[in-house]
Amino acid sequence: MNAGLSRRRLLAAAGAALATPALLAACGDAPTNSGPGTTGADDLKKALPDYIPSRAVTADIPSVTGAGGAASDSAFLSYPKDPVATVGGTPGKGGTYVTRTPLWGSIPPSSGNAYYDAVNKALGATLKLQPSDGNTYVDSIPALFASGNLPDWLQIPGWANAKLNLGAALDRFADLTPYLSGGNVARYPNLAAIASAAWQAGVWNGKLYGLPCFPSAGGFGGYIFYRKDLLDAAGAGPELRHIDDLFALGAKLTDTGAGRWAFDDLWPYLKFPFGLYGKWSADASGKLVNQYETEAMLEALNFAAKIAKSGYVHPDALANNTQQGRQRFWSGKVAVQGGGTGGWDGDDAKGGLAADAQYNRQAFKVFSASGGTAGIELSPGAGWFSYLNKKLSDAQIRECLAIADYLAAPYGSKEYLLVNFGAESVDFTMTGGNPVLTGKGQQEVAQGYQFLVSPPAVTLVKNGLTQVVKDFAAWQADAVKHAVRPLFYGMNIAEPAQYASIEQQVEDTIKDVRFGRKPIGAFKSSVDTWRKQGGDQLRRFYDDIRGKYGTGQ
């Protein structure tokens, strides 16, 4: 649905790592909050750009405002017939800048690339794109840090902050606060149209460093999907009022003789119905409690073990065979499956329909296991950020920000069409009202500029499958009404390094318990070990953070 690697697609590809509320970076050994990263609410307000919504383009399905500052993505069924220009003149001043971004796919030629040439001409500057293999991209960055030879413009995904110790490396990057904070951003209207929440995780120590990529006010790591065609054939309704309704689908949908089981793996998305959002919450007395220590976690694990032992879960899922999970869903071997929202788009529908002509993916509406208030964890407004080299002069930073404003032009604009699809009749043609890459475009157009900065996410048609857009937009519009910001939402917290691995033995035990291989007592024992290994000290660390900087609410 979203052009190229959308924020939803990236969430799925990154294993929903962006839903983690605290973006971690290694720091000293003592449980203190003096490490780099954390910003209090007052300083955050001073650093964030003002939000000035764009009125340049009208969506076919407008955004819907939800709870906790959440809002669904606008949706388009076709590209506007008369795209508007949102940037007057040429933003660049003739400068040349080297960029480095990840790429999943074939790296296009850098010389003789008509797409790069067309975009650079429109920018009035030369961006020398240096895409790197996305699978090893993060591993290549430490060498850049060590050499001191950083590119002018560098993408760093938020989920890699811990590995890169980014909080301690910020002196390498330009402080954008004087240029973009508050009303300063008005100079760049397309950047101003990116919601404040998307900038939040780009703020470190009270200063704005990051330019957001793939921002969305309605991002969710994922949820529980179902095959509507299979439920309809079984006479099973998709409305879940209680967790027992989900379990009841097991008997209705499982037919081992026909090679079909009701469920694939539903974890970790099964946690949401049980009210588990983020790592930490506060109990009735105000004490910080890790999700491992809650009754809700015990209930979620007991339910997962219950369906695992019932015979309703596909054997390959119980064997933790995740590689074939999508194929099992496409072919109808399972009818219900947990997954990232990035897996619900026109490409998924195309693959599913090739396997089964009746294929129809839907997601259950957000529900509560107890039948009470339903909720779903809201992801940070952006989890991918680019950074400008501190060595750039004031004039160069301003030129790069003007270029960024062009790159952040909204879907439906002339600028967006060029940046994402190149030149018409050369790189793309309009087919069914939507841009489709030509053979030349498929060779030359690659996701690069989008990893420098992106406009607000939209949902759009892929492979001509309009109904998929309508279905996702309707689900998201309902889901944002139940959005929950977890504690320490979007805060860059430098968690002490010695606690980096204490969760692993708990997570390993969780897998064994939810697959029915170990009793719930094994999980309780692993949590006791977690506390002894540093969990209680980590609680004090976060208590200190809460007392001095708040909780990101």
UniProtKB/TrEMBL annotation:
Signal peptide: 1-25
UniProt keyword annotations, A-Z: Signal
Name used for this protein in its record: Extracellular solute-binding protein
Lineage of the organism: Bacteria, Bacillati, Actinomycetota, Actinomycetes, Micromonosporales
